[in-house]
Amino acid sequence: MDREEVRSRGWVLKAYAPRGNLTSEHLELRETILDVGSLPENHVAVKALWISVEPYLRAKMYGRDVGLCATQCPLNQVVKWYGIGEVLRSNSPIYGNGDIVLNPFLSLSEYSVAPAEIIHKVDSDAGIPLHEYLGTLGIAGFSAWVGVNEVGQVKAGENVFISAAAGGVGIIAGQLAKIKGCRVIGSAGTDEKVKLLKEELGYDDAFNYKKEKDFDAALSKYFPDGIDVYLDNVGGKMLEAVLNHINNGARIPISGMVSQYTQVWTERDGVRNLLNLVGKEAKMQGFLIRSYLHLLPVFTAEMIGYMKQGKLKTKHKIYEGIEYLLESLNAIFSGINTGKVAIKVL
Ligand SMILES: NC(=O)c1ccc[n+]([C@@H]2O[C@H](COP(=O)([O-])OP(=O)(O)OC[C@H]3O[C@@H](n4cnc5c(N)ncnc54)[C@H](OP(=O)(O)O)[C@@H]3O)[C@@H](O)[C@H]2O)c1
């Protein structure tokens, strides 16, 4: 194959950020020249179309594992992350130019070269918008599905509470629990998000946790019959308050604890009432979706079915242009986003 050069801008990690927000001191957009012509055998050159943005990406840049088993990105290299791309050139019998692929080790750059065996074809004729493969059909949707069904084991009639309910995972989780016949309440950080949950996304009720001085009192009001399942996305003080309201045999699937990632562990909120787990014979379980990958086909078929029947609404916060990485990632920690955050690479 002949040499063929493209200019590619990509995000290079210059320094870890042990706490707080990422800034230009940590991440820099650098341009490099990539040869997409002379590809090694069984490799493809991919033009990035969509990049997923989520807390786990930030977790790879603390310089230490915050408790999520996130391998730290090496310094002074383009960050590897996942997204959707289009095959630009192929030296693989499996992929042809123009194929749309899910690339779990895409560089956070406009173009990258990847081994063919790590990418997966996306059916671009299925009538599903490509960014849904990162959201509803991607990590956010799968986390919601695993949390609600596999770990939460929700049953019709149960009282379900979801924090960060208007985020990528939360929006899907609430709707899945409603489909199962549960009573679902969510918490979120703005009145607009609360309105969205109640009026558009089918939540039975929702509250703005930033306006509640006393989480314990709020949960007494919203859960007079106690909580059977709490899908925890935030951890900290909300988790502690929930533990005072759980019913016998309650399940607490812990998807993540976004309120706690930016502090070192000694500065985090302690949860003082874990003893309630004993009295209520309740189960609290953290999970990572990578342990449930064998269920991906079941999940995908079920979710596509719901989407086709109009049972699942989706929301996205889309940033246009790879240069918006810092803004988009920090948005998650300040709650600017509603729904799944993604970058459309122009
Ligand atoms: N276990 C897994 O395999 C897996 C996979 C993917 C994601 N996750 C986890 O799922 C959770 C949600 O992820 P996501 O990608 O869907 O993100 P997201 O919910 O779209 O964004 C995070 C949301 O959390 C809320 N938040 C931020 N800081 C907060 C704080 N200090 N206290 C309370 N709420 C805060 C914000 O909404 P408000 O307006 O409500 O504040 C923000 O929109 C995260 O904990 C993430 O780590 C787990």
Core attributes:
28% strand, 6-stranded parallel β-sheet, 346 residues, 15 strands, binds NADP nicotinamide-adenine-dinucleotide phosphate, Quinone Oxidoreductase, Chain A, domain 1
Low-confidence stretches: none
Structural class: alpha/beta
Small ligands present: NADP nicotinamide-adenine-dinucleotide phosphate
Mean pLDDT: 95
The succession of helices and strands, N to C, reads: EEEHEEEEHEHEHEHEHEHEHEHE
Second rung of CATH, namely the architecture of the largest domain: Alpha-Beta Complex
Determine and state the CATH class of the largest domain.
Alpha Beta
CATH level-3 fold name of the largest domain: Quinone Oxidoreductase, Chain A, domain 1
How far the N terminus sits from the C terminus, by CA atoms, comes to 27 Å
Looking at the structure, what is the overall shape? globular
Radius of gyration: 21 Å
Task: Classify the beta-strand content into a percent band.
Answer: 25-35%
CATH superfamily of the largest domain: Medium-chain alcohol dehydrogenases, catalytic domain
Number of domains: 2
Per DSSP E runs of 2 or more residues, the count of β-strands stands at 15
Q: Oligomeric form of this entry?
A: single chain
Total helix count?
Answer: 9
